[in-house]
Amino acid sequence: MTGRFALADVTVRYGSQTALRAVTLTIRAAERIALVGPSGAGKTTLLRLLNGSARATAGRVSADGRDLAGLARADLRRLRAAIGVVHQDLRLVDNLRVSQNVLAGGFGRQGFWGSVRAMVRPRRQDLARAHAILERVGIGEALFQRVDRLSGGQQQRVAIARALYQEPHVLLADEPVASVDPARARDTVALLTDVCRERELTLVMSLHNLDLAREFFPRLVGLREGAVIFDGPPAALGGESYRDLYRLPPLARSLDGT
Amino acid sequence: MAPERALVVRGSGPGGARLAVFLLLAAAGLWAALVLDLDPRRLWPGREGWQLGAEFFGRALRPALAREGADLPPDLPPLWWQATRAAWRTVSFAAAAMLPALAGGLLLGFGGATAWWAGGRRSWLGPAVTAACRLASVGLRSVHELLWAVLLLAVFGVTPLAAVVALALPYAGTLGKIFAELIDEAPRGPAGALRDAGALPVQVFLFGLLPRALPDMTAYSLYRFECALRSAAVLGFFGFPTLGYYISASFENLYYGEVWFYLYVLLALVAGVDWWSGAIRRRLGR
Questions:
Q1: What's residue B5's pLDDT?
Q2: Staple B199 to which of A137, A138, B203, B267, CB 3.0 to 4.6 Å?
Q3: Is B195 near chain A, with CB under 8 Å?
């Protein structure tokens, strides 16, 4: 996998709700894209489409030119192994050690016994690789600590390290800084964008914070009510499209008296 | 999460339902007492009752330290040795029963959980296995170990095997039910993350779900071991040479001092297991 994606006229419906409507989008390898827009705009659904967690109701999603809809189980597993995901709520096994959580990132390329070995008696070179990644994200010293003994910021770095341990070609991050104080939010976004630049990974990150998106991403994709209403460099996001993006729904507008 | 929970506590609907359930249970209790003709005044014993009670409980502070009764055969082992052996046998029955009970409980618990298939691809297999395992758990534990003992005595006679199987069957059912619940209560987030990373279902289950359930599963198993000790002691009433056997024999001979000695041994046994399981739980960080 090289990290290219194409969405052609993709619609996703959950029951009567339409999460995405007729989205067409091309993502090139090693591109860094911020998905911006109000909550409920379809950012998470778009991310879930890319690793096959969500399915298109209509339209076509492809990775490296291969249609994700027709993917066999083993191929889906291979695709996911090549895509690291960082969730807002981290999703770590917090009564295991940092090393075990990071090494779990390798499961996608391991058989059952390989993963048992990685959890119980990891090989020296695997631990060394996990340690190097933890060093890169700034918490090398935490390798053998239990996750629930770490601070929130350190835990977030463990989640990032687990995704990087996959040696992915793509990193997807779903609101990684939504529940984080501003200083740490900036550090985290900087870390993720730096790492992806270094390793030439495709990065797609959903972000509430438009300022961070403008500062760190060469390309912004604005979503509103399931449709793409902006796609371009931050400089092209003028006042008009900004207002479109965050235009308040009618009820809130009348309450605000605007 | 927190605000939703606060709503549930404050909301009038669920609170009203809780009150209704409480009143219903209270009414059922009163009705049952009437049907059974329960009269609290009858708790007041007669003169003989008082005498027996005084004799029995009077020995609580003066347990026998040697055998009671006259003209004992000279080759009888001393009381402390008899009690120690009975305690040891009680522990062995309980331990021997816990081994197959744990194996069965783990199988039923893993199968009976929904977490190992929820979130994966949809198929009929997962729900079917869960339903089958839960049905088996219910079947096994709906028959009490003493009833199993009666059934198995008829089959095997008074053999250690009968006692161990009688304990193991309902305990496997109970462990299976609780294990399934603990696994299902473990947070699903890590499992989702591993699935996203391309992990196999078995890897997701073993290393995404199970680690969070394991400390509670261990603690509960230790508690069940304590229950198994008490049950093994009671199985003595059927003739198995555990503490219960000697307790009932001494009671029938009116050797209340001996009864209290055996009871204190049982108490020490249960307290010991309780202390031991507490130490393990502390080490597990719970």
A1: 40
A2: B203
A3: yes
How far apart, in whole angstroms, are the C-alpha atoms of residue B221 and residue B215?
Answer: 10
* Cβ atoms B201, B129 nearer than 8 A: no
Tens of pLDDT, residue by residue over A160-174, are 999 999 999 999 999
Interatomic CA distance for residues B48 and B55, integer angstroms: 11
User: How far is the alpha carbon of B30 from chain A, nearest alpha carbon, in Å?
Assistant: 47
By the 8 A CB rule, do B200 and A107 touch? yes
- Segment holding A206, helix H or strand E: strand A202-207
Query: Distance between CA A67 and CA A74 in Å, rounded?
Result: 14
pLDDT (0 to 100) of residue B135: 95
DSSP state of A118: H
Contact A92 B212 (CB under 8 A): no
Q: How far does A239 lie from chain B, in Å, by closest CA?
A: 36
> Which of A81, A96, A146 is opposite residue B198, by nearest beta carbon?
A81
- When pLDDT is cut at 50, 70 and 90, the band that residue B4 belongs to is very low
State the nearest Cα–Cα gap between A182 and chain B, in angstroms: 23
Beta-carbon separation of B198 and A108 below 8 A: yes
Q: Note the pLDDT of residue B1.
A: 35
- What pLDDT score does B21 carry? 92
Q: Place B2 in a pLDDT band, splitting at 50, 70 and 90.
A: very low
Whole-model pTM: value is 0.80
Task: Chain B: give the shortest CA distance to residue A241, in Å.
Answer: 34
pLDDT tens-digit profile of B219-265?
899 999 999 999 999 999 988 889 999 999 999 988 999 999 999 99
The phi, psi pair for B230, rounded to 5°, reads: -65, -45
For residue range B114-146, list pLDDT tens digits in order. Answer: 888 876 667 888 899 999 999 999 999 999 999
A92 touching B (Cβ < 8 Å): yes
Q: What span, in angstroms and rounded, lies between the C-alpha atoms of A128 and A114?
A: 17
Taking one residue from A and the other from B, the number of pairs with CB-CB distance under 8 angstroms is 81
CB contact under 8 A, B285 and A96: no
- Taking contacts as CB-CB distances below 8 angstroms, the residues of chain A near B202 are 112
Q: What is the pLDDT of residues A58-72, one digit of tens each?
A: 999 999 999 999 889
The answer to whether A85 faces chain B, any CB pair under 8 Å, is: yes
Which residue of B197, B202, B206 is in closest CB contact with A105? B197
Q: What is the ipTM of this complex?
A: 0.88
Nearest Cα residue in chain B from A110:
B199
Q: Cα(A254)–Cα(B99) distance, rounded to whole angstroms?
A: 68
- Structural contact between residues B262 and B246, judged by C-beta atoms closer than 8 angstroms: yes
Domains of chain B and any CATH numbers:
79-283 (1.10.3720.10)
